[in-house]
Design a protein that fits this description.
The complex is a heterodimer of chains A (279) and B (453).
Chain A lengths: L7 E3 L11 E4 L18 E2 L9 E21 L1 E9 L3 E2 L15 E3 L7 E20 L7 E8 L1 E4 L5 E8 L3 E4 L5 E4 L4 E11 L4 H12 L4 E4 L22 E6 L4 E4 L8 E9 L3
Antiparallel strand pairs in A: 1-10, 1-15, 2-4, 3-9, 4-8, 4-9, 5-6, 5-7, 5-8, 11-14, 12-13, 14-18, 15-16, 16-18, 17-18
Chain B lengths: L1 E8 L12 E2 L4 E6 L2 E4 L11 E2 L2 E6 L22 E9 L5 E19 L4 E8 L2 H4 L14 H9 L2 H4 L28 H11 L2 E5 L5 E5 L9 E4 L10 E8 L8 E4 L2 E4 L1 H7 L3 E4 L7 H15 L5 E7 H4 L7 E5 L3 E2 L26 E2 L9 E10 L4 E8 L57
Parallel strand pairs in B: 12-18, 14-16
Antiparallel strand pairs in B: 1-2, 1-7, 3-6, 4-5, 4-21, 6-9, 7-8, 8-9, 10-11, 13-17, 14-15, 17-22, 18-21, 19-20, 21-22
Helix pairs in contact in B: 2-4
């Protein structure tokens, strides 16, 4: 695997419907805003496309800014490229993908997964273009749930226990006269607790990262799988650990810290609770 | 980072206030600021004019810092009449704070209480409009024959008021500037009672802006542009910023199809037939002329004849802090959509073909849907300092069956003309100003003018 490290934390996507980002699609433009919204169930979809038609999505950020990561979440692209504007659309350099590293561009010819992730040398730009030629099913309409354009805050070197992995529909229960329960479900939200138990001080960068998140007022993106996928890593991939499971979250509770057995030169225990936020 | 800040300016020996504020936030209890409230049309079945509530502050009187006649105290000349300010402070990553004043009032010493066991002191801080409650109209201040605007000037442009609030006749623009018949009816009344009567008969509201200027205007919303957009859980783009919606209602509790001013009655007959005969009676001493009473009754009936939706919406204070009374709000509160099954998608208007198996119409669910084209105005603001939330009381704008929306549709759209409720030509005495045209199914533009033959 090309991507290294564990759980990854990113800045919120620079491409967002909340910040005046614009997105134009070659077809299906009526749904293009769905590729930069906060709803995992809405998609940009092409209209009348096939494998002979190259579709483009052009995303214009509100300001020119430095980026180092791009993620295409939940799509069906097989042959596609991603470029940035540098007085003309230009390839990224020193690209690392989920499968390879040292690539000279973001360019796939036989992609089979539903989510793509790329790390590359920093570029400063205000426009990204995604060009899609073919789909994983022949001649299907192209679709994409989310494009994330961002920079990385940090990657955990160690492997904290991911306990209390809650995927909830925020059920509201009311008991009626018969004794039965009416259950109303809302949208799916996610929260989790990272237990850095018996954490060796050699992983102090992870602890520093947790404090960085604690100090932040803005939410951040959490990718629990960190780019790991497949049977080598998951016999069964729970929701929350799939490639497409990347959530905007915030530290929801006070930190619970201690030195193990009160030995200041020993191991560290730390618990971090994260909850999904809308903005 | 966001915090609330409490600052104070004690009265000095020369009856002036210092130029700088003293920050007392570190002494104020975490739950020590009661809710900050301001509203018009406060309660059901009533039409009010303006309410700005007083607040209670609870603080730690550590080492007598809030005592009187104590050399350790911040009050060199007593606590009474100290100015208290509560601000909402946003601090950015560079530590630069941007403060928004949420409340400014005058400390009322009469209600101060100190408990020594836990060194807790409670202050009552009166809203600035309390100056209207604590002073009276001097005899002869209002003359018979003055207009409402002139009468308001006579009552408000006095030293007792202007030492706290700012008055300018340019800011006094009542909706119905009727002429007063008997100015002596205001003699020795509290300024608040006198102002309330003048506002009521002129169908106006009184607001205080951020600079403590007294504003008198109609109940019309400030502007349909620059509205505050709020999004519910069903927003298709996931922009949710509403915490909860409460007390959604049709507005019938504030619908009056008839007003009786003294002995003069005005009935809006067509609306009475549609919404029931709901009469409000007013006893107005300052008006004795029948024609004026009729004009007042008519104007008030026109204002409240048609039920306009009302609701309360709770949001984070950060979302609503720059919006005040009579500002407009857009409620984007669609039904929530069931998630498409694996492999299916939400249909796209203008793209999805009827019968497309991969884009079935989604199931909608949820107890309430509010169309985003309905325009609401803020008629009440309650700020919860402890929870950093604000509850906005909203009322649909407009006064007619066909207004209260952002964009008037060019054709009749189901959902706006509510079956069983919408009434064409509600008032049988109303004369239409345009030529009648026959209604053609599929082509008719219903705009309150077309006649269905």
């Amino acid at each position: 695997m090309a991507i290294t490290g564990g759980i990854k934390i990113f800045e919120p996507s620079a491409a967002s419907i909340d910040n005046s980002t614009t997105i134009v699609a070659s077809t299906g433009d009526a749904s293009s805003d769905f590729a930069i919204d906060n709803n995992a169930y809405t998609y940009w979809r092409s209209s009348g496309s096939n494998d002979l038609t190259t579709e483009t999505l052009t995303i214009t950020l509100p300001t020119s800014q430095a980026i180092t990561r791009i993620m295409l979440v939940d799509h069906n692209f097989k042959n596609f490229q991603v470029q940035y504007d540098n007085s003309g659309f230009t390839n990224f350099s020193n690209v690392t993908s989920l499968d390879s590293e040292g690539l000279s561009a973001i360019s796939e010819t036989n992609y089979t997964k539903n989510t793509s992730y790329y790390e590359f040398d920093s570029v400063t730009t205000n426009q990204i273009q995604i060009s899609i030629d073919t789909t994983q099913s022949v001649d299907a309409e192209k679709y994409l749930s989310k494009v994330i354009i961002t920079t990385e805050i940090g990657t955990l070197s160690g492997y904290p226990v991911v306990s209390r992995l809650f995927t909830t529909r925020n059920e509201k229960k009311s008991q009626v006269l018969s004794g039965k329960t009416i259950i109303e479900k809302s949208i799916e939200t996610f929260r989790t607790t990272l237990n850095l138990n018996n954490y060796p001080p050699s992983y102090e960068s992870d602890i520093d990262l947790m404090y960085t998140l604690f100090d932040r007022d803005e939410s951040f993106l959490v990718w629990l799988c960190g780019g790991r996928f497949g049977s080598d890593y998951f016999r069964y991939t729970l929701r929350g650990f799939r490639l497409q499971d990347i959530y905007l979250m915030q530290v929801a509770r006070s930190f619970n810290n201690k030195y193990d057995k009160n030995i200041y030169t020993g191991l560290i225990d730390k618990r971090v609770t994260l909850e999904e936020t809308p903005l | 980072m966001i915090v609330y800040k409490v600052e104070i300016k004690p009265l000095q020996g020369d009856e002036t206030y210092p130029s700088t504020w003293t920050d007392i936030s570190d002494y104020v209890d975490a739950s020590g600021i009661s809710k900050i409230k301001k509203e018009i049309d406060a309660t059901d079945y009533s039409i009010g004019v303006y309410t700005l509530s007083d607040i209670t502050l609870k603080a730690k009187n550590l080492n007598g810092i809030f005592n009187e006649a104590d050399h350790r105290s911040i009050f060199p000349n007593g606590r009474d009449l100290a100015i208290v300010k509560v601000s909402f402070s946003q601090i950015d990553n560079q530590g630069i704070a941007t403060d928004t004043t949420r409340f400014e009032g005058i400390l009322n010493e009469e209600a101060t209480r100190l408990d020594t066991e836990d060194s807790e002191i409670r202050f009552k801080v009166l809203a600035k409009d309390s100056v209207l409650r604590k002073n009276k109209v001097s005899g002869g201040a209002v003359s018979s024959g003055q207009t409402v605007s002139a009468a308001l000037g006579s009552i408000l442009n006095v030293p007792d008021v202007t030492k706290v609030l700012n008055f300018s006749s340019a800011n006094i623009n009542p909706d119905l500037d009727v002429v007063i018949d008997d100015g002596s009816s205001f003699d020795n009344a509290t300024i608040r009672d006198a102002v309330n009567e003048l506002l009521l008969i002129s169908n106006s509201v009184l607001l205080l802006d951020a600079s403590d200027n007294i504003i008198v205007k109609s109940r019309q919303e400030n502007s349909l542009t620059g509205f505050l957009p709020l999004y519910g859980p069903g927003d298709i783009f996931g922009r949710e910023n509403i915490i909860r919606v409460k007390s959604f209602n049709s507005g019938k509790h504030r619908t009056f199809t008839s007003f009786k001013v003294n002995n003069t009655v005005f009935d809006k007959t067509g609306f009475s037939e549609a919404y029931g005969f709901q009469q409000k009676s007013l006893s107005i001493d300052s008006i004795t002329d029948d024609a004026k009473e009729l004009s007042i009754a008519t104007r008030l009936t026109e204002e409240f004849k048609y039920p306009k939706q009302e609701l309360e919406v709770e949001v984070k204070t950060l979302v609503a802090k720059n919006h005040g009374l009579l500002d407009t709000v857009q409620m984007n509160y669609p039904f929530q959509l069931r998630r498409p099954k694996e492999g299916n998608f939400y249909p796209i208007v203008g793209v999805t073909k009827i019968g497309d198996a991969s884009d079935p119409l989604p199931q909608e669910y949820g107890p309430l849907m509010i169309d985003s084209n309905i325009a609401f105005k803020i008629i009440g603001i309650t700020e919860n300092v402890k929870k950093f939330t604000t509850t906005l009381k909203l009322r649909q704008t407009g006064t007619e069956t066909f207004d209260g929306i952002f964009n008037r549709p060019e054709s009749a759209i189901v959902g706006f003309a509510v079956i069983g409720t919408a009434v064409l030509q509600a008032d049988t005495t109303e004369v239409l100003k345009q030529n009648w045209n026959p209604a053609i199914v599929g082509a008719t533009k219903i705009n309150g003018l077309a006649e269905v033959l």
